[in-house]
From TrEMBL:
Residues 8-129, 417-533 form the Response regulatory domain. It is found in: Cell inner membrane. One of its GO terms (molecular function) is phosphorelay sensor kinase activity. CDD domains: HATPase, HisKA, REC_2_DhkD-like. The modification 4-aspartylphosphate is found at residues 61, 466. It comes from Duganella guangzhouensis. This is histidine kinase. It is a multi-pass membrane protein. Its EC number is 2.7.13.3. The lineage of its organism: Bacteria, Pseudomonadati, Pseudomonadota, Betaproteobacteria, Burkholderiales.
Length: 545
């Protein structure tokens, strides 16, 4: 334990001889009792000493000129820090009971009469010095205990935080494991259907109707796989902040009505009572992303509502917001899950079958897309089997009038000659057969070098070029085609699995005319080819190297 400071004794006396006698007498025992002796010649001097030091006891002369002992004692005890210092009055005169009462009222603990008897003085001083040392030791122990308590509290807080962080990580890991298992399930279902349909087409004796149905299954399940990949890519983009919006004024009610009509037309809402109450509300937003928000909220309601259940979709304006609400009477959300429904890799357990599928990442996308639009989304539920309500709020703008673009009509010109550069054998063969089936004259190449040779010899009107080619990639193929006077006027369409804004910029900088993200819908591809075919001849392009 650290060494305690020595207690201090203050002797106050206006008479120099008396002051010297008392301090000398006390000094004889100072080393033995381990205390220090200080002196003061007046009440004012005593007050200054009290301001600078703490004292175990004060020996105070009663009869001093100016400020006497009683006044000095009163001033010392009027100060909070020195109010508890014991004071022993020293006087040469016998005191009556009134004087003693006055002294005690001013904080005196005892009287000594001069001449002072050394043994009596020693006994009294020793008591107060011992008390001061004990008090100081207790204070120091209290400070150490307080410090230790603070350290233990901080350690306990750190330990609690570590335990919570560990539990959070364990929950996230468990959720990721469940997500990966569910992803495997969602991928195997369409792959199994595609594999079975492809095998059926190759069987001898299969009817034309069977082949037709198998082809429809392959097309439908391929689109389903594409949606799964799109969801994963969108989640990755949302988490990394790489989603870029293309905002325009639109009526949220009209957008939601179109989405609901799609659900009814495709039969996805047939087994449900799907009600709508849509009031007009104008916002500035990306139409595609807002359709994604709407679809994910409705999909979520369908997934967790048993057949025959009711789903209500409403839009209205409220102050400066346009509000979309999707309410269902399905399985509801447990209180423990409600704060986490928008977290990544979190999905409520459902007693329903998984016929409608999904990865359980839709709500995470909804929240991120809502925030990108300057809005918010929240979930409400009274608990299990009590249904749930999801409410989207977006900033309202003034009513906008927009012109409707004229529909694009298909051209009647001759079909262009097409060069297809694709390194995937199956993909190249299927694309070439599909284009041939639509009446296009197609030449195919398996890599960039062969594609450049074919462009020179075949002289196509249009080239479909995969970006991820071996040897030289699609960007370099485009640059070389644009740099060669013999091929610079060929219309170039990029085929890539990357669809971010930076990817589009790189494609256009390399000299492409259009950018398509795989898997490419056949109708979209036909429209892009037709549009490119009607473009005027390309002007010389300044290609970035």
């Amino acid at each position: 334990m650290p060494k305690l400071d020595k207690p201090k004794i203050l002797v106050v006396n206006d008479d120099a001889n008396s002051l010297f006698a008392l301090t000398s007498l006390l000094a004889q025992w100072a080393e033995q009792e381990s205390y220090e002796v200080l002196a003061a010649r007046s009440g004012q001097d005593a007050l200054r000493q009290v301001l600078m030091h703490d004292f175990a006891v004060i020996l105070l002369d009663v009869n001093m000129p100016g400020m006497d002992g009683f006044e000095t004692a009163g001033a010392i005890h009027a100060r909070e820090r020195s109010s508890d210092i014991p004071i022993i009055f020293i006087t040469a005169f016998a005191t009556d009971e009134l004087d003693r009462l006055k002294a005690y009222q001013h904080g005196a603990v005892d009287f000594l009469f001069t001449p002072v008897i050394p043994q009596v003085l020693y006994a009294k001083i020793a008591v107060f010095v011992t008390l001061a040392m004990k008090n100081e030791e207790l204070k120091k122990q209290a400070r150490q205990l307080s410090q230790r308590t603070t350290e233990l509290t901080a350690s306990n807080r750190r330990l609690t935080n570590e335990i919570e962080e560990r539990k959070s990580v364990e929950r996230q890991n468990h959720a990721k494991d469940e997500f990966l298992a569910m992803l495997g399930h969602e991928l195997r279902n369409p792959l199994s259907a595609i594999s079975s349909a492809a095998s059926l087409i190759g069987l001898p004796g299969v009817s034309a109707e069977g082949v037709h149905r198998a082809k429809k299954i392959i097309q439908r399940q391929s689109q389903h796989l594409g949606r799964i990949v799109d969801d994963l890519l969108d989640l990755s983009r949302a988490m990394s902040g790489k989603i870029l919006l293309n905002p325009a004024p639109l009526d949220l009610a009209a957008l939601v009505a179109t989405s609901l009509e799609t659900y009814r037309a495709t039969g996805r809402s047939t087994d449900y009572d799907l009600a709508q109450d849509l009031d007009q509300g104008w916002i500035s937003g990306d139409c595609t992303r807002l359709e994604q928000i709407t679809s994910n909220l409705i999909d979520n309601a369908l997934k967790y509502t048993p057949p025959g259940g009711r789903i209500e979709v409403r839009t209205w304006t409220e102050n400066d917001d346009v509000v979309l609400s999707v309410r269902d009477n399905g399985v509801g959300i447990a209180p423990s899950l409600l704060p986490h429904v928008f977290d990544v890799f979190v999905q409520g357990s459902s007693t329903l079958d998984r016929a409608q599928g999904g990865l359980g990442i839709g709500l995470s996308l909804v929240r991120r897309l809502a925030e990108l639009h300057g809005g918010s989304v929240k979930a409400e539920s009274r608990g299990d089997h009590c249904g749930s309500t999801f409410t989207l709020r977006l900033p309202r703008i003034e009513h906008q009038l927009s012109s409707v673009p004229a529909p694009v009509s298909r051209a009647t010109h001759a079909k262009p000659r097409v060069l297809l550069i694709e390194d995937n054998d199956d993909g190249r063969e299927m694309m070439a057969m599909m284009l041939g089936g639509y009446g296009y004259d197609v030449e195919a190449a398996a890599d960039g070098v062969l594609g450049l040779r074919a462009a020179t010899s075949y002289q196509p009107d249009l080239a479909l070029i995969d970006i991820g080619l071996p040897g030289i990639d699609g960007y370099e193929v485009a640059r070389r085609l644009r740099a060669d006077p013999a091929t610079r006027d060929i219309k170039l369409i990029a085929l890539t699995g990357y669809g971010l804004a930076d990817d589009l910029r790189r494609v256009m900088d390399a000299g492409f005319d259009r950018h398509l993200v795989k898997p490419v819908d056949i109708d979209q591809l036909m429209e892009v080819i037709d549009t490119c075919a009607r473009l005027p001849l390309a002007q010389p392009v300044a290609v970035k190297q």
